[in-house]
Amino acid sequence: MDQTSTKAKVLAVLNRNKGVYYSGQELADAIGVTRAAVWKAIENLRLEGYAITGVTKNGYALDVEADVLDSDSIRQNLTPKENKYYQKILCLKETTSTNTFIKERYADAKLEGLVVSAETQTGGRGRFGRSFHSPVGSGVYFSVLLEPSGTPQKASLITAAAAVAGAKACERINRNLRKGDVKIKWVNDLWLDGRKICGILTESSILFESGEMEYVVLGVGINLSFDVRKAPKELKQTVGGLFSKPAPVGARAELIAAFLSEFYAIYERLFQKEGPESRAALDALQADYRRRLLFVGQEVDVVRNSFQENDARTATVVGVDENFNLTVVYDDDPAKIATLNGGEIRVRPKTPLTS
User: Fold this and answer.
1) Lowest pLDDT segment from 195-199, 208-212, 225-229, 343-347
2) Using the 8-state DSSP alphabet, how is residue 110 labeled?
């Protein structure tokens, strides 16, 4: 058994009963290793910042206030059916990007439902190659490997499903929020109280012969809290957190589990059912997405290509079509409704939509 596996198992045992002391022998017997392996795992966990107390004759205990993010703490918040679908959950201390980790190591593994989370990302990515700020302890950063059938156009359904699932999950975890408080900024951001709290990045691999999706990696980053003092200058005015104060202990595991639960409820019906049930799921998704959509009736700048920052056109947002493309009316072409399936929008001062 490798040391990483031993660490994870020791941590899981201590985390199930925080504040309870386990002797080295009890831990060794529980996970099937030697006492020496347990001692080494404890020392490594302490080096990683876990508050583990050791008392002679009593053993080891994890601090009751410790906020541990591991597969066990996530799984305990999932139903048996959901646990079966999310067949493998990996919790890393650090990686460049959870999306990249999956693509490099598991893209060919046929492990649909694989979940990889990280305490921090050194190379977190957003759309158009932008960096995604991923500080330790202030958010959740995770990716899911999916193997849906169908053409690349259906990938837009996955992004939309993730946005709605993320909004619902945030409202479940922060009980001060009401249904509909978390909004969607087309195409892949979640906003709360006028600030971005979540980014979503969907990446797919297409089979050349058939033109169908081989796999999709769905990446999600949600800020639980946001320290303006430590944030990059360009984020200070636009980014926020799910909680106005430090998040409660255990909120990270609960939030990931809530997202996985909400997402699976949508994804299963969209991609694993057929006929009326799939159509009903799509109708429900469209309705919820539209209810949460930001800036309807407001003026925005439409940027079709992020590498041409000055190439923006002013438009008024109308809504989204059945494929979750944004519909707008350009100021310089008011006679027709235009459809956007790429690019992004940037907020302008509020202007009512005129009939």
Assistant:
1) 225-229
2) -
Give CA–CA dist 25/30, Å, rounded: 8
Give CA–CA dist 165/151, Å, rounded: 22
Please state at what angle helix 251-271 crosses helix 155-173, rounded to 10 degrees: 140
**Furthest-apart CA atoms within the chain: distance in Å:** 81
Rg of the chain taking only CA atoms, in angstroms: 22
Helix (H) or strand (E) holding 14: helix 3-16
Residue in the structure block whose two tokens are 């059912």: 273
Rounded Cα distance, 200 and 263, in Å: 13
E strand or H helix that includes residue 199: strand 195-206
Are 306 and 141 in contact, with CB atoms under 8 Å apart? no
pLDDT one-digit tens code per residue, 341-355: 888 898 864 444 443
Q: Which two tokens mark 302?
A: 């439409």
What mean pLDDT, rounded, does the chain reach?
88
| Amino acid at the residue 129 | G
The C-alpha atoms of residue 246 and residue 240 are separated, in whole angstroms, by 12
CA dist 320 and 163 (Å) reads 14
Residue tagged 């017997």 (tokens):
29
What domains are there in the chain, each with its CATH number?
A: 3-62 (1.10.10.10), 71-292 (3.30.930.10), 299-347 (2.30.30)
Which DSSP string do the residues of 103-163 spell out, in sequence order? HHHTTTS--TT-EEEEEEESS-B-GGG-B----TTSEEEEEEEE---S-GGGHHHHHHHHH
Of 181, 186, 188, nearest in space to 203 by CA: 188
Average pLDDT over residues 272-294: 93
24-57 residue pLDDT tens: 999 999 999 999 999 999 999 998 888 999 999 8
Which pTM was predicted? Answer: 0.86
